[in-house]
Structures are given as C-alpha cells and as structure tokens.
Amino acid sequence: MGSENFFRKKDIGSIPGTVVYVGDKSASDLYIEVFDYNEEDLVEKELKNITEVWEFDTSSNVTWININGLSHVETIEQIGKHYNWHPLMLEDIANTRQRPKIDEYEEYLYVVLKMLYFTHEGALAVEHISFVVGEDYVVSFQEMDGDVFSEIRERLRSGKGRIRKMNADYLLYSLMDAVVDNYFNLIEVFGDKVEELEDDLFEDNTHEDTAYEIQVLKKEILQIRRAVFPLRDVVNRIEKMESKFVTDKTMIFIKDLYDHIIQVSENVDIYREMIWGLMDMYMTTISNRMNEVMKVLTIIATIFIPLTFIAGIYGMNFEFMPELKYKYSYFILWGVMILIFFGLLYYFKRKKWL
Amino acid sequence: MGSENFFRKKDIGSIPGTVVYVGDKSASDLYIEVFDYNEEDLVEKELKNITEVWEFDTSSNVTWININGLSHVETIEQIGKHYNWHPLMLEDIANTRQRPKIDEYEEYLYVVLKMLYFTHEGALAVEHISFVVGEDYVVSFQEMDGDVFSEIRERLRSGKGRIRKMNADYLLYSLMDAVVDNYFNLIEVFGDKVEELEDDLFEDNTHEDTAYEIQVLKKEILQIRRAVFPLRDVVNRIEKMESKFVTDKTMIFIKDLYDHIIQVSENVDIYREMIWGLMDMYMTTISNRMNEVMKVLTIIATIFIPLTFIAGIYGMNFEFMPELKYKYSYFILWGVMILIFFGLLYYFKRKKWL
Amino acid sequence: MGSENFFRKKDIGSIPGTVVYVGDKSASDLYIEVFDYNEEDLVEKELKNITEVWEFDTSSNVTWININGLSHVETIEQIGKHYNWHPLMLEDIANTRQRPKIDEYEEYLYVVLKMLYFTHEGALAVEHISFVVGEDYVVSFQEMDGDVFSEIRERLRSGKGRIRKMNADYLLYSLMDAVVDNYFNLIEVFGDKVEELEDDLFEDNTHEDTAYEIQVLKKEILQIRRAVFPLRDVVNRIEKMESKFVTDKTMIFIKDLYDHIIQVSENVDIYREMIWGLMDMYMTTISNRMNEVMKVLTIIATIFIPLTFIAGIYGMNFEFMPELKYKYSYFILWGVMILIFFGLLYYFKRKKWL
Amino acid sequence: MGSENFFRKKDIGSIPGTVVYVGDKSASDLYIEVFDYNEEDLVEKELKNITEVWEFDTSSNVTWININGLSHVETIEQIGKHYNWHPLMLEDIANTRQRPKIDEYEEYLYVVLKMLYFTHEGALAVEHISFVVGEDYVVSFQEMDGDVFSEIRERLRSGKGRIRKMNADYLLYSLMDAVVDNYFNLIEVFGDKVEELEDDLFEDNTHEDTAYEIQVLKKEILQIRRAVFPLRDVVNRIEKMESKFVTDKTMIFIKDLYDHIIQVSENVDIYREMIWGLMDMYMTTISNRMNEVMKVLTIIATIFIPLTFIAGIYGMNFEFMPELKYKYSYFILWGVMILIFFGLLYYFKRKKWL
Amino acid sequence: MGSENFFRKKDIGSIPGTVVYVGDKSASDLYIEVFDYNEEDLVEKELKNITEVWEFDTSSNVTWININGLSHVETIEQIGKHYNWHPLMLEDIANTRQRPKIDEYEEYLYVVLKMLYFTHEGALAVEHISFVVGEDYVVSFQEMDGDVFSEIRERLRSGKGRIRKMNADYLLYSLMDAVVDNYFNLIEVFGDKVEELEDDLFEDNTHEDTAYEIQVLKKEILQIRRAVFPLRDVVNRIEKMESKFVTDKTMIFIKDLYDHIIQVSENVDIYREMIWGLMDMYMTTISNRMNEVMKVLTIIATIFIPLTFIAGIYGMNFEFMPELKYKYSYFILWGVMILIFFGLLYYFKRKKWL
Question: Which family does it belong to (chains A, B, C, D, E) (predicted)?
C-alpha cells in the first residue's frame, strides 16, 4: 500500500517482463477464492493452491477468480504461465506503482485500478488492483485482504439483480462500479476532514501544525486525483472499443460508470480548490491573531508609558520644583492621570480596538 | 437539496438500476399536475395518484406531467414501469447527486438539470430536476415543491406566445430556458453578496469571519459552476443531435439557450476571479490595520521612552549632581522635553505617520 | 451602459422573442441617420421616423442605417416587422446583456459587438452595438449617442479610400474595424492607469484604497476581456463561412481585422498578468513599511530601555549604595551611558537598520 | 522600438492599407543595401535611393535587399508600388505594433518577426522586422540600424557554407535563424539578471525597489514571450505549407529552426515560473527581517522592563520599607538582577532567538 | 552537464550543421566501446580510435557502439562522414542544449534524451545523450563517462532475457528504458529532499536559507520536467510511426515504456505542486514564529509596564502623599502588584497566549 511513500524503488535495468512486487513484502497472506456461476447455479470455493483453479477452465459458466496478496509473485507467474499471459502484463499486476490503465490483448482485457481507503490511523491507503477479463472469466488481483466487493459476493450468492444472468463483462463492470462507488464514500470522509479543518480555522482553533495538516490534505487529494483521473480514460476507452469482451447489453452500464467517474473527478477538483483556499484562510487567521496581540500591547503601552513619564517627572530630585510643595499637587496629578487614562480608553474605543 | 453537504452517501454496491433517493427524506409531499394542450384546448389537472396519468396516454395533444417529490421513489418506479423506461434512468431521476447530462434513448430523451436558489437563510440550495421527453409528452421530476415555471404555466393557460402551437420539444426548451433564466437572477443576487463584501473590505469594515465568508462564497461559486458548466455540453449535444424529438423549428431557440448558458458561465468565471481577488484585498486590509496599530505604538513609545529616561536621570540620588541645585534646572528641563516632544512630532509628520 | 452593474435582471419566463431593453431607460433619445451611396453619389439624411427608411428599400446603392437609442424598443419592433427579421434577433438587439456573437440567417447576417470607453468619471462603460447586414444594406443599432464612426462618415462623404467602391460587407468591416481600433486606444488609456498605479507603488505613494483600486482594475480588465475575446470567434467565423454577404475582395481585410483582435487580446492578457503582479507589489510595500516602523521602535526602545534601567538603579533609596557618595559617579555614569548610546548606534549601523 | 510603452496609439479609423509608422519618428536614417549573388558571383552595394533597386529586377541571381528605417514610409510605398505589393502588407511593414505572423500571397511570402536586445541602459528593446520573399529575392525591412545579420553578410561574401548555393528560401531561413539564435543570447543575459536578483535575495541584499525590479522582470519576460511564442505558429505554417517559395532542400533547416524556437519558448516559460517564485522569496525575506527586528526588541524589552520595575520598587519613598535599611540589600539586589539577566539570556538561547 | 547554468551561449550565425560542443570543454576523455552480438555470439571491445569501428560495418550482427565524450567533436564529424549522416543531426549530437526529440531519416532514426542524476554535492546534473539507430546498429553518444547502462551490458554478456535474441530496435528500447527507470530513482531521491524540507518546516526547524532551498527545488523540478516531458512525444511518435527500424515485437515494450514515462511525468507534477505548497507552509511558519515573539513581548510588557507605573507613582517626591506615611502601604502595594501580576497571567492563560 502506498500510504507513506508512494514512489518506490525498482531496480534499474531489471529485465522487462520480470514480476517484481515493490510494496510491503509482509503485506498479506495468499488468499484465493472462486465463484463459478450461471443463471441457475453457483459454486463458491476457497482454494489453497493456484493449481486448483485449472479445474474451472472447462466450465462454460462465468468464473470469477479473486487472488489477494501481490507479494506472492510466484503464484502470479504460475497463473500467467498457465493461461499464457504476456510477461509485461504480469509485471504490471505485481507493480503497485502502475497507474490505472487498460490494455487490450487478443485473448483478454487487462484493467488496472486503485482501491482507496483511510487506515485506522486516518492515513490514506492506495491498494493496487488488476482485472484480467476473458470471454467467460474475470481474474482479480488484489494487493492485500479487505476489499469493497462483499455486496457483489452477496448478490452472486442470492442471485438478486441481473448479475447472474449476464456475462463476464458485466462482472467486470460490477467490480469497477464497486471501486468507484467506494470513491464516493472516501471523498465524503475526506470532505469531512476538510470541513473540520475549515471549522477549526473559522473558530480560530488552530495550532502550529495546521499548515502541516493542510499540506497533508493537499498530498492526499493529489494521490486521490492520481488514482481517479486516469480512470476516465480507461472507461472511455472501454466505451469506444469494439471488443468481443464487452457486449452491447453491458455498454449502457459502462456509460453510467463513466458518469460516476466524472462526478468523482469533479468533487476531487472542488476539494482541491477548497484546500488551496484553506491555506489563505489560515494565513489571515494568523495575521488576525497577530493584530490582536499587537493591539493589547499597544493599548497597554500607549496608556501607561505617558503616565509613567509623568510619575517620573515628579520623582526628579531638583531642589526647585514648585509643584512638589503644593498641598494638592498629588491629588490633582491623580486626577490628570485618570483623565488621560479614560481619554485614551475612549480613543481606542472609537478606533474599534476595544 | 444540497445546500449543506453536497456529496452524500450512497450504499456501496447497491444493484445498478435501483431507485434510491439520497436527499432529505422528509423533503416534500408528492404533488402531480398535468397540462394537456394543443393550439385550441388546454386541460389542467392536479392528480392524487400517478395511475391517473395513464388516461392521457391516448391523447394526441402535448402532455406535460410535472411530479414534485423525489423521495416518493415508488411513484417513480410505477411510472417507469408503465412507460417501460430504462432502470438506470429511473436511478438517475432519484439520484440528486447526478450531474447535469443528457441521455438519448430510442423512445425518449432524458435531461438532468439543477435548479439553484438561495434559501431564506441565504444559503445556496441545489434542486435536482429531470425531464423525460417523448414525441408528445414531457415528464418533469422535481426534488420538491417550488419552481421557476409559474410563468410557463401562465403562458400555457393564456395561450400567449407560440408555446401552445409548438411541440413537446418547445416545451422542453421553455422549461430549460426558465431554469437558465433563473441562473441570471441567482448570479445577480450572488454578485450583490460579492460586491457587499467588497465594499466592506473597502470601508475597512471587516471582522474575524471575513475570511470564512470569502471561503463560503468560493464554495458557492464552485457549486454554481458545477450546476451550470455541464449544461453547455447538454445543450450543445441537443444542437448537434439528429433526433425526432427535436424539430427544426425549435432548433433556433436551442441555439439561443446555448448563448444564454455561455453568458451565465462567463459571469460565473468572472465572479470566481473576483472572489479570489477578495482574499488578497482582505490580506492587505489586515496588514494595513496592523501597520496602523504599530504606528500608534511606535509614536507613543518613541516620544515618551527618551523623555522618561531624562526624568529618570534626575531622579537619581547621587550626592553630586550639580544640575539639581541650580534654580532654573527644572524649567529648562521642561523646555528641553517640550522641544523633543514637538521635534519628534514633526519628524513623524514628515514621515507621514501622522 | 454596463459601467456599474454589468449583470442585470431580466424577467424570468418572458416569452422568447420579446424585445426588452434592460439598460438605463432614460439613456438616449432616438436618432436615425441614413447614408445611401455608390461610387458616384451619396445621400446623407437624418430621419425623424423609422418609416422614412422604407423609401431606401428600392435603392440599388449600399445603404447604411444607423439607429441610436435601444430603449426605443417599438422602433426596433417596427423595423424588424418591416424587414421580417427573426424575433430572437430583435430580442438580442435590445438585450444589452448579449455577448458578442454572429448569427447567420438566410437573408442577413447578425453581428453583436461591444463598444468600450471610459466615462468622464474614469469608469469603464460598455455600449451594446448590433449590425444587421444584407446584400446591399447595413443597419447598426447603438445603445446611445456617441460612437467611433465619425472617421467612416468622413470617408463616405469625401469618397476617399475604397469604401464607396465596395459593397455592404466592406462597410461592415469598416465599422467593426473602427470598434476594434478603438480598443487599442482604450487599452492604452487603461495601460496608463496601470502604470500610474505601478509608479505609485514604486514611489511608496500608496494609501488604504490602493487594494481597492487594484481590484477595480481587475474588474475592468475582466470586462474588457469579456467584450474582446468572443470577437475572435466572431471574426474567425466570418473568415470561415461561405456567405453571399461576404465577398472575396473583403476577405483579406477581415483577416487583417482578425490579426488586430488577436493583438488586442494579447495586450489584455498581458495587462491582466501585470495587475495580478501589482497586488504582490502592494503587499511587499506594506510589509516594507511595517518593517520601517518596527525598526524605529526597536532602535529607540533598545537604546533607551537599558539606559532608563541604569538611571532607575541609582534612583533607588537604599541606605547603603557606595556609588551614590562618590563625587564623580554622576559624570562617570553619563560617560557610560553615552558609550552605550553610541555603541548601540554603531551596532544598528552595522546591521544596516540605520 | 518598444522598450518603454509597447502599446502605442494609431489614429482611429485611418483608411485600411495606409502606411503609418507608429514608432519613434527620429529613430533612424534610411539605409539601403543590396546583395545580389549566385554560387560564383556576389555584388554588394549600398544604395542612396530606393529606385536604384529596380536595376536588380532582371537579375536571375538571388537578391537580398535590406532596408533600415521604417520611419521612411514613402520609401516603403515606392517599393510596394513598384513590385505591386498589397497595401495591407505595406501597412504591416511599417506598423511596429504588428505581432509576428506569416501571410501567403500569390507572388510572395510575408513574414514579420521581432528582434530583441537590451539597450545600453539595460532596458529591453523590441525591433520590428519584416521579410518579403519572392522566388529569387528577399527584401528585409528593419525598424532601425543595427542587426544580427553581420555573420550572414560575412558568409555571403566569403561563400562559406551552403548559403551561396541555395535559393532565396534558404536566405530567409538564415535570416530567421539569426534572429532566433539571438534570442538564446538574450535569454541568457535575461537569465543572468534573474539569477543576480535571486542571489541578492539569498544574501538578504535587498532594498525597497526589489519588488519593482521583479515587476520589471515580469514585464520583460511577458514582452519576450509576446515576440517568441507567435513564431512557433509562423515556422510551423512554413513547414506545413506547400509553396513554391520553400524548397524541399530547405525544409529540413526549417524543421531545425522550429526545434530552436520550441527551446527558446521553454526557456522563456521556465524563467517566467522562476520570476514568480522570486516574489515569494522576497516576501519571506521581508518577513524574516521583520522577525529579526522584533526579536531584538523583544529580547531587550523582556530583559530590562522587569529589571527596571525592580529598580522602580526600591525607588519608592514609603517610610516603612525594611529592605532599604538593610546593609547588603543593594548588593543582593544586584545579584538578583544579574541572575534574572542571565536566566533570560539562557531562556532566549534555548528558544534559539539568540 | 547543465547543473549550473542550463542556458548556454552559442555563437550567433554559426553555419547550420556546424558541430559545436557548448558544454564543459574539459569534461571527459574520449571512450569508445563496441558490443557486436547475435543470439549465439558476443564481441565486446574497447576502441582507441573511431576508425576501428568501420570493421564492424560488414557484420550482420547487432552492433552497439557507445561513445563517451561529446567534447571530441572531430570524432563525431568522422563517424558522421563515414556513415553519411546529416550535418544537422551531427550538430544536435554535440549540442547539449538540444531538448529530447526524435528525427526520422531515411536510413536511420535519431533520438535525443537527457540522463539525470545528482552530483556528489547534491546538485542536479543533466547529461545529453543521443542514439542513432539503423537496421542492425545503435550508436550512442554520451556527454561524459558514467551511465545507467551497466545492467544492460551485464545482460548482453550473460545472454539473459530476450535482448540477445532481438534486433537493434529492442536495444534502443532497453537503453531508453534504463534512462527512464533511472528517472524513477532520481525522483525518489528528489522526493526525499522535498519531504526532508517538509519535515524541517513541520518541526519549525527552518533558517534564513529555507526560501532559497525551496527556490532551488523549484528550479530542479523545472529542469527535470524539461527533460522528462518532451519524452512523451518522442515515445508516442515511435509508437505511431511505421518504420522499418521498429518491429512489431518491440512495439509492446515501447508501449510499456510510454506508460512509465507518463508515470514519471505525473510524479514530477505532483512534486511540483507539493513544492509550491512548501512556500506557503514556510510563510505560515515565519508568521507563527513572529506571533510567538510578539506574544512574549506583549506579555512581559503588559505585566510590567503598569507595575512600573505604580512604583513610579510612589517614587514621586510630593510633600503631601498620605500613603507614604502609612505603615503598611509598602506591603499592601506588594499585595496589589502581585494580584495584578496573577490577574494578567490568568487573562493571558484564558486567551491561550500561554
């Protein structure tokens, strides 16, 4: 997952087509599940070994093979070899750095997406997910356990909706749709974070880290953008391409999916603009606070410095200072100083500094 | 209505084509009205139940069915089933999150717009509105009561203008035109808010919330943009498409509508630039005010600190301080201090700090 | 004229094709003039009533009918009815909010422009101007009296240049060229305002309204942009279109006109960037000035606060303070204080604060 | 030359095709030189009068006629009349406000460029230069004396390189290439100015005019952009057009020229971004300096104000102040004050203010 | 290498096609190596003189000739002459200022790239590298020693992967891929620098040079951009072109390479946005720090200035000041002052200034 450092090292000059997993090695155990279904029947099975998959090759049903754990590169190589997939595609399956894209091969389609969620610590996590789609199968590769497909599994089991009646291309659509739907939730949570920060700024409830938090938000929205924006091209290309893997019946759903991605993209850009606005807001907050501090200082100093001066005058030790002898001097002076005090208060009041 | 949080939750993985209303559930009662007209006759009727609509199916007149209250999803499903509309379209009718768009189906056109207005509290409200247009009918779905079509109803009743003589496509145009015309009013009100804030900034009549108000304006203009900009594509596609639902006679009006949308878009962008300028203005206002405060402090301190020092000198208790004995010392000192006082005043005057 | 509030109200839902003047009602008296000419002859006439125009219908000469005063909508309706013009075009003639555009009708071309000038108060005024061009006539509609066509009238009268030898399309070109040429003058005046402000900023000759003045310049350049930029499309479309109203002989002049508009556009964008730079300059000016103020305060305080402290020490009333008794204490102390004084002065000098 | 005010007045409504020079009238004497050459021979001649040019009309050699001094409009009109050039082209030759462009006429090509250099006072100067290219001649019009073609003259005289063997189109290429090559030098000098300012900012070596200098750089880069960017279209159009004036042999050089212009454009944009960064740097410089000033004030005030207060306490004249009588009070007090002094110094040290 | 000043002088008007090296003359010794291979055999040889290369002309193997040291222009001219390469291409090989591009000639392809790395001093270095590709050879020209091709040499020697089985076009791909792979490493190192600076800003660990460091990062990212972005066009054109030099088998790798370049470009743009954010962060850091300083000053001054004033009052020498005689005055006064002291502390606490 790319939550911390999303640009990771790959060995220079490694032979093209080499399957290298560049994410967290200890990330996830291998987990393989299969759904093999048609309108009437459904077989759901958890597999121990990738070779158990071969038995579904002859099935005329739609087969969904879901594999979690990209660090198990040997499994990817095995399945790739069995189905005779292109080495560069295998490289991309394991390469978590690969951006969303679609590649058309003669025998299959290859789609890369990013699953986004917030970890328990509140950091943004990016999970690499690939789909290989043939005429009657979809193989999905997830970086690790945990996904957004539970509702789809439920629909497959219950047979609700049209999913069991349709082909592999509709399954692909459903999986992609689940990923995109999840973006809406993510954007919503993200939006809450932005609005929380906005409220903090409004209530002048900021601290030294506020600038840093805004910078983190900026980085997160950039990462989200990076995951979401290339999807537009991907889905657009599915719409445009004439492929035996995408049927006309599914096309209208793909169009709907495209609509959703545009909506997510728009929201991403709106939050992006809003976050840039936050920095400006923060700057004015700081400046206003400084103004506040300066005003207190200026009011106190402007009132007491002249008064102290007057007191200083009559603290001088000249032998000939007629006022010192006069009986009411002290009280008159107090009067004068109180006058000055309230006069300045009034002046500041009128200036709206108080 | 999307006045507060315009990105709302949708359940992940809900079956595509499911009609889900994501807005405020208690928003509005169901309200159905029908206008059935041709050049000679007009029938206007308020219906209790959606099934009463079916009776107009056989009419060869133009029929406008207006339905308020998107939360009544069962009604949408009923009419959708009756007219055999596509489930994804039904989903979009209820989905207030859907952005403005146009979909061409074989038997009808589907257009999504956003109605914008300011609530009594001054917040920007976005109302989702859909049109389904067939050869001789327009069905409009509004999120809630209250719209901008009263003038159109009036024209239908009175038979003024060409509306009663034209087809359903002209009715669609008229409804869209009313929505767009309303944008002009909204933009005007919005503009007044911007200019008010600008005047406040000019008259230095700001407060701590000014930054927040500017941020609110930014958000509102982004929401307006989001509603207005996709409309350009919508109307442009109507212009370009060869559909039996849009006649040549109406086309010139569509072109005029396009002109209006471009105008609204331009105004939106102008206000957007102006709002960004406001933040800069506000920053200079704060800084100028700080300068003001600092000047007062500096003037007072610069005048009285040296004077206090002098008074301090002659408050020392050394036994041998010749000046203390001299009879006129005190008065000479006053003279010196008054000289310093006016000298510094003159200095600040010349520096234009006073 | 749109000098103050350039987005004005139009009644919602008014019947499309209704001629409504949305500008200042009392703006201008109706003024009609006609130039009817060919290479040999010229008839120039001021008309009292629009119906007098009909007499030129049969003339085979080029006829220029210039009508000032858009508030006289009944005149526009009369002439529109007489020549059988499209109602939407008549609406646009009176609608000062209409942006520059070109519409091709079968029997005529319709062109909308904006005339820009600075009023005597220095505010930017935008005047709406329309041209209807047929095979042998140009009708121009101006919002009010005063235009940039006096040179063209002169050329028509004197017969200098090629204007009398060419068709109506050349007259259209000449009128548009005069409008665009005037943009150059306007931009020049505008540029002087920008440079004046720049000089003020340079000479630190600013005041509290400077930010407001910059904001006004921003608004004006946005308005100019709004008038100038759509013109590019207008003239480009004239170049591209194959119309009987534009002859090949005129085309090269249209191309030249396009060049000029591009030039104006470029200048507009350059000034736009320069104005954004001004705000930054102003911010640094304010900050520099604050630095100046703070330095004065700091120098005075840093010098006199320690000195005052020393004086305070020897103003204490302890019974046992050996220095007080010593004969030269006072003079030594003066020496020390003068040393401190010049020492600090030297320190500030070296820090370049003096 | 456009070094000071690059948007100059042109009389409104002057007849299109009128040759008007809008630059500095006293700018330059008329200077005419001719190079008439083929692979074997070269005739180089300085002419007194434009009519002497006619004698080269019959030559089958390539003829380069270079004319300096655009203020001599009658000369331009004479040559234009002789060769039957289009009046609008003649207008553009003299119109220094014309942006870079290319016009194709049937009998010749017309190319406008801008020569850029820094004057001795360091201001950016823009010189208008036009080329008219026929099958066997190039006529170049320069605003004034001084150009970047001396190397080309040298190559013509010596016969080095391929210039003497090629046609007029190669001469055009060579002249344009010399202009573009000069842009590289200019950009380099400009870059030195930018880096110098950057170093000044780095070494905190700024003054009140720094903001103004940055604004000047911004304006200069905008002017350079204005001269360079349209050239891309010009050369691109030469590449694309099928003209008898540009031979295949020359095309590869034109492509190379295009590469160079792209490079200049990129550099211009890089400097543009860098200059915008300078303003930010300057702002932080000012703020850092203010911080510096404030720290000095705060340190001095924080140390001495409490000490002065203590001294003030023991300067009071109460009759019953036990400490005053105690023999070591004074020395203890000194000890306390020295402790406070160093305590605060340590505090500031730890805060890294010292 | 372009690490310091990336826009360097070229003599104006030098004859096009002249081979001029504009980099550091003493940069590198001449180094020539040859790999001549097919699936079975490999000859690797280091050459003293360019003429030794001719012996490989007749080989039907793929030949990779790698030449380091662009300052040795005579060698470039020699090989250019031998293979009859176009003079403009030779000029570009030596011209380190040339941006990445691809040129198609009839007999060969010419590709320019930039190799990027950080020097030991941490400065960004840009090395110019060119490839000339024929049907069975690749000639690479590097500005100096040191490259990113060691892994490729290793693969050639060991025969691992498909490199020895493929044609010259695959070698070209491998070399370009190595350069692009290296961009990932570079970006990573660059990213570490950015994040380091970000952490410094977060921990308020900044100094006066921080603004300068950010400006340096800005410049570096601009340079990286300049090297990376044109590559997209280069590879895209390889994908699109139908050339005998690029076989279908290699095409899929080229597509993969294109993907990688897009990824690098995206990362570059993300870092670019992040760096611009840094400047804002730095500004808030400075302002926060100033706030901190001002608060200390204000607290100290606000507490002690009034107290000093009170002490000053009772330091006056009036003969009639009743309090002075009262026995407990002094202690009461201390009580009052302590009250004021803690009262103000409490006030500041509540204001969250402490």
Answer: Belongs to the CorA metal ion transporter (MIT) (TC 1.A.35) family.
